[in-house]
Amino acid sequence: MEKILVLDFGGQYDQLIARRVRELHVYAEIRPYSSFSPSDIQKEGYRGVIFTGGPNSVYDPSSPRCGASVLDSGVPVLGICYGAQLIAFMCGGEVAAAENGGEYGRTLLKTEEHALFRDVPAESVCWMSHTDRIRALPPGFRITASTDHCPCAALCCDGRKLYGVQFHPEVAHTQYGSTVIRNFLFDICGCSGDWNAPDHAGELIDRYRSRLSGRKVLLALSGGVDSSVAALLLHRAIGRDLTCVFVDHGLLRKDEGDLVENTFRRSFGVNLIRVNAEDRFLQKLAGVTEPERKRKIIGEEFIRVFEEEAKKLGHIHALAQGTIYPDVIESGKGPSAVIKSHHNVGGLPDRIAFDEIVEPLRDLFKDEVRGVGETLGLPRELLRRQPFPGPGLAVRVIGEITREKLSLLREADAIFREEVDGAGLDRAPDQYFAVLTDTRSVGVMGDAGTYGFTLALRAVTTDDFMTAEWTKLPYDLLERVSGRITNEVPGISRVVYDISSKPPATVEWE
Ligand code: XMP
């Protein structure tokens, strides 16, 4: 398999670079500059190297660097932003703070004839984000692009196969960014594009079959995309030697537990243990109102239930997890060091000894995981699920949690989701749900007064959930949802729509 190395110098778009490369069907690996040695290029057989951006100034002696021999390994190197400045600096050029304070945002880029800019018009829009700039070219280099404020927006030394771009080709705002990356991969590095995540599924199944055959493996299935795809993949590899434990804490959305059970046990024949632990969880949560305390209780109880089930099974060789590539990169701890908490609420059992941790999806991005899930036949309802917090509805019932409140919320939430799903919106919100507030208000129904709960509807549009905008849902849709909820869910007499963005509000209320 052809591989590209993305050498991480701390830039904010590093994962995006690797994703763009993989979208072009070339496998990319991200590695921190600090744990990389130039000899790895030959050892790993990388076809090319991309230096990422980063927040530092190359002329600062403590700035991140890499061994100079990378540049003379014969393998093409493309530097992006800081990466371009680093190439220039290492080759004897001069980098300095831009006199005009740098460039940020959409900028007009003028390109010259060069292999990197094949099929890129002479003028196009690029995305800039830099305070330093290359002031003097290193010997043997030439300028291949410029902007009004940045005379050296791209440079190259074809003889040494070194290339740099000051702008960010990985960002969607750069009109021809993907073309630039494609040119680097195919024309300059000579890749052919042999990577495809769904095809990779077969290879993973074979790999785990031979690695784990005849050994017992345990997986905590939450019904989320990652653990579901990991479960199916390992099921294909080792069949009944995989046991999935699905802890139903009673805080799931309407019919969700049954969907998970039916899909895995009935449709796929997975060896699944569903633990109906609602009573246990609700007992522990009785009278608790503080959100972080709720999370802690749920996390601890989850581990206790999981451990009890594991113990009943006798010796288990490995614990499998749905860790995906961004989890691995973010942990920054290198291979197999990450322990992902399946419910993101409390970590993993540490009182059970496993011989190994198995993470079949650790090289894949989320969209690639979905691709693999699709190939394995995972139904759309599970594959396209919106994110759902580990503590579930516990953080959407504000204040004390009771069975009755959960039931009201489940019904109202199901109505809201059904109406949004059926509304034929051009772009569905990325997350939408109902929250049962702890506030009651007076109302009137027929001739009688009521004093029911106030329900809040929340819908957000976002790319990464770090920031989010409240979704401008059509009024007629909101009207339908409100009418249905107040009519069909006795106990809720008022419906409000949350019009706060993140920041300052968070997506969840608790
Ligand atoms: P916030 O509320 O932090 O949510 O803006 C951002 C995203 O994270 C989800 N979320 C959680 N997920 N355990 C989880 O597994 C949690 O405790 C938790 N709290 C928030 C939230 O649903 C949204 O997608």
Verbal overview:
Helix 5 packs across helix 11 (366-375), helix 6 packs across helix 11 and helix 13 (403-421) runs antiparallel to helix 14 (475-488). This protein has helices spanning 14-23, 39-44, 82-90, 177-188, 197-212, 225-238, 256-267, 278-285, 291-312, 325-331, 366-375, 380-383, 403-421, 475-488, and strands spanning 3-8, 27-32, 46-51, 77-80, 94-97, 103-111, 123-130, 132-136, 142-146, 154-157, 162-165, 217-220, 242-248, 272-276, 318-320, 356-358, 431-445, 448-461, 469-470, 492-497. Residues 333-346 have low confidence and may be disordered. It is an alpha/beta fold and 510 residues long. The chain has a nine-stranded mixed β-sheet. The radius of gyration is 26 Å and the shape is globular. It starts with a strand and ends in a 13-residue tail after the last strand. Helices cover 32% and strands 24% of the residues. The protein folds into three domains: 3-188, Class I glutamine amidotransferase (GATase) domain (Rossmann fold), CATH 3.40.50.880; 197-383, HUPs (Rossmann fold, 3-Layer(aba) Sandwich), CATH 3.40.50.620; 404-497, GMP Synthetase, Chain A, domain 3, CATH 3.30.300.10. It has 14 helices and 20 strands. The structure holds xanthosine-5'-monophosphate (XMP). Xanthosine-5'-monophosphate is lined by residues 295, 344-345, 387, 389-391, 431, 465, 502, 506-508.
